[in-house]
Every structure is written in C-alpha cells, then in structure tokens.
Amino acid sequence: MAVTDRVLAVLGTGLVDAGRPIVRADDLGLLRGDGIFETLLVRQGAAWLLDEHLERLAGSAVRMDLAVPAPAEWRALVATALGAWPADAEGVLRLVCTRGPEDGGDPTVYAAIAGVPAETRRQRAAGIRVITRSLGLSADFRTTAPWLLGGVKTTSYAVAMAVLRDARRRGVDDVIWLAQDGAVLEGPTATVVWAVGDTLHTIPADTGILEGTTVARLMAEAPGHGFATGIRRGTVDDLYAADGVWLLSSVRGAAAVREIDGRECADAGLTGRVRGALGLT
Q1: What's the helix, strand, coil split of the chain in %, to 5?
Q2: What is the dihedral of CA 255, 261, 267, 272, to 10 degrees?
Q3: pTM of the entire structure?
Q4: What are the pLDDT digits (tens) for 90-122?
Q5: Which helix (H) or strand (E) holds 162?
Q6: Is the pLDDT of residue 3 over 60?
Q7: Backbone angles phi, psi at 176, to 5 degrees
Q8: Which CATH superfamily is domain 120-278 in?
Q9: Would you say 225 and 262 are in contact if contact means Cβ atoms under 8 Å apart?
Q10: Are strands 174-178 and 191-196 parallel, antiparallel or unpaired?
Q11: Over 80: is that where the pLDDT of 151 sits?
Q12: Where are the domains of the chain?
C-alpha cells in the first residue's frame, strides 16, 4: 500500500485503502455511539504515550462492558499503521473499538492515522481563546451515577462537538466546562491546567472528568523542570488570577489560554517550560 495522507489498519485484515468502508451500516458505534477510542500524537515514527493510552482504553472498556483486543494486538495494529506513515511526519492516530453490528458479532476495531490539522498547529503556536459553559451537573454527580460514563472516552461525542461549534460561531476556539456551582471541570477534548507561581494545578478525577494522559505526563515530569504540582478543585476566578492557563490534549499538547469569556489571561512566560516538561518543544 502506498503511503498517503491517511493510513487505515483493520484488526484481522491489516492495511486497507483509507477510503474503503469498513463499518457496517448497523454498527452500534454509528447508531448509538456505543464504542470507545483513543487519540494519540504520532511523532518521530512512534505513537506518543502509547502505554498510557492503552491503559486508559482498557479502563474504558471495563466501564462499557466491551470486549477489546489484548494490548499485544493493539500494539501490532499500531505498528502496522505506523509502518505506512512517514517517520518524519507528525500525525493523529485514532484507536477505535465499537460494539460491532446490531445483530451481534465481533467488535469493529481499527487504527487510523491522518495529518495534524493546520488549525491545531495554529492553536499550538498562537494560543486559544475560550468561553465557559455549564455542563448542567454538580461536580460530584457523575461519580454517583456511573451510567453517565464520566471519565470514559466513548465515541459518543455529539455534545462535545455541539459546544465547540457554538464556541466557533462566537469567534473563539474552545470551551471550559463548569459544574452547576461554577467549579471548573474540563474542556470538551482537553484537560485544564493553571499555574500559581511555579505550582501547576489540575482538576481531580473525582469530579467525573476524563483522566488526561498528557496532564499525567506533565505532573510526573514537572518537578524536574522547576514546578511543584497540585490536584485540587478550582473556579473560574482561580483561572482569572492564575499566572498561566492551558488546555492539554494529546495532539495539541499544551495550548496556552489567552482569553476566557472575553477576559485576557495572564501569561508569566511559563508555556515554554510546560512544553519542555512534556518533551514537546
């Protein structure tokens, strides 16, 4: 298969034409969002934080009662896809597993790689403007209602995409979800981090947020780059008063938040150190 701007590898089949249909019309991942996925950054010929993403994928599968391939099968599928992707090109790798056809059968499992969008690169370089929006729940509610799948990375992203479309209609780049009481939660596709002096803070998982692989790496590496770290609940006022605010995600990395709800955010020049701690300079 010739290397193109997209690569597709299907479990049990291998590389296929990236334009080939591989999902049945009655696949429950399409009909009901009944599936899970992970998105990884491809850089220097490898999938960044692959171990961490596979661990999170396995946790999502348990919460969803979904049968997924063993880690070794995922790794082989990733290696197949990477083998057809230019080693010197960044990419977006998606690992997807749906429950499969409505009438039963094997899950649908594939790995797909595409280029990093130009808008993502722009946001890395220039930073982002965000607005806040209520998720309509208390910060504790999702942990008491496991059927809401807080902290699970499902393929059901319609709400996240809807709020991002609303943000872009308003001329901004992204959103920070708030609980009913104003507590900061997460972005639709990212984790919130803020700095107070040389201490980096992020939101605890007991608020029902998805535990970010990128923020976990940051918190592990930050002490070696002169940062202290803390995990605690926060408010928008904490973000307004911070010495830096970022939305962290696998492909975009650490996107500096320049504005929240029309209010300019402070920038103490910490973004370079944060990216350095991630190894993404």
Answers
A1: 30, 30, 40
A2: 0
A3: 0.95
A4: 999 999 999 999 999 999 999 999 999 999 999
A5: helix 158-169
A6: no
A7: -115, 120
A8: D-amino Acid Aminotransferase, subunit A, domain 2 (3.20.10.10)
A9: no
A10: unpaired
A11: yes
A12: 6-116, 120-278
